[in-house]
Amino acid sequence: NRQFVLARRPEGKPVDDDFDLVEADVPEAGPREVLVRTRYLSVDPYMRGRMRDEESYAEPWAVGDVLQGGVVGEVVESNHPDFEAGDTVTGNLRWADYAVADGDELVGIETGGVSDSAALGVLGMPGRTAYFGVTDVLDPDPGDTVVVSAAAGAVGSVVGQIAALNGCRVVGIAGSDEKVAHLKDDLGFDAGINYAEADVAEALGDAAPDGVDGYFDNVGGPITDAVFEHLNVRASVAVCGQIALYNEEGVPTGPRKLHTLVEKRARVEGLLVGDYAPRFAEATERLVGWVQSGDIAFRETVVDGLENAPDAFVGLFEGENVGKQVVRVESE
Ligand code: NDP
């Protein structure tokens, strides 16, 4: 049973030596526990925060801890009445071939036959984040212009499509021409901006000619500064993440254009998907329906092999993923 431990706290962008792949016994399931074989592991930007020695909404890992993450896996052995060997389950498990969990912390996957790994992406935590962020926090009106950053990623790709279903003009900001083409051609975005090439503030003049009514912020930093310049009066900003800042050690580089919030009387609200746990079933039902009807398209970037999980994780900070980044773990 291979498992990854945090070898040391990363400085800046994580590197290979920050992670150690170690051998351990396959754990035994205790009372009400379930032994799960990992099939897919999710790597997520928030995990960078857990590698810091700082309190946050997700508890920091200690050096030497086995890393945890969202997993879709197969039940090998169950001492819990809800599960039996062969079931496919999802939960917050480990960067490991096998892990045990309290059966109360696991759920069967609900993907409507879409794909098992989708339970980590469009039909899982990122999809739910997009759903509640648009529906509850931005709450746009038809005809509004909604801008989303990290638009080709797991959360952003779903944000844009839900906003479009609400009748909004949708503008996505992403890091390559290929991603911008994907947004427009495959996901139905009205416009896209490649922030690696374009001056975002300038490009928004064309992409959002009527200004920005809703901004779903996944990245922070200079991109958010640029969007703030285009906010309309009474605009709403949902702050979901600040990935541009996660590897910074010093003072954040933005957002800095806060005076525009005064001028525009804009509302900025942070969002944490966990707060919506009592309504997860509602989100899953809507998302499964949209994917089945073709109203929401999705992509995944799949890296093979548990040993490549750190690379897949670091790739999130280099924009290597289109859609949800998952690691396929083939262990026997
Ligand atoms: P993504 O699938 O969007 O992957 C991250 C993407 O961020 C990359 O593909 C890259 O795309 C972009 N990116 C990386 N570095 C930068 C940078 N310096 N500037 C601009 N863009 C960058 O990840 P998720 O969808 O899982 O997460 C997106 C955001 O949502 C993160 O900030 C995450 O922390 C947050 N989040 C928050 C939740 C909550 O409850 N609040 C829940 C889930 C996620 P590109 O090529 O375009 O640069």
TrEMBL record:
Keywords: Oxidoreductase. Residues 14-327 form the Enoyl reductase (ER) domain. It comes from the Archaea. InterPro entries: ADH-like_C, ADH_N_2, ER, GroES-like_sf, MDR_fam, NAD(P)-bd_dom_sf. GO terms for molecular function: oxidoreductase activity, acting on the CH-CH group of donors, NAD or NADP as acceptor. Gene3D superfamilies: Medium-chain alcohol dehydrogenases, catalytic domain, NAD(P)-binding Rossmann-like Domain. The keyword DNA damage does not apply. The keyword Ribonucleoprotein does not apply. This is NADP-dependent oxidoreductase. The lineage of its organism: Archaea, Methanobacteriati, Methanobacteriota, Stenosarchaea group, Halobacteria.
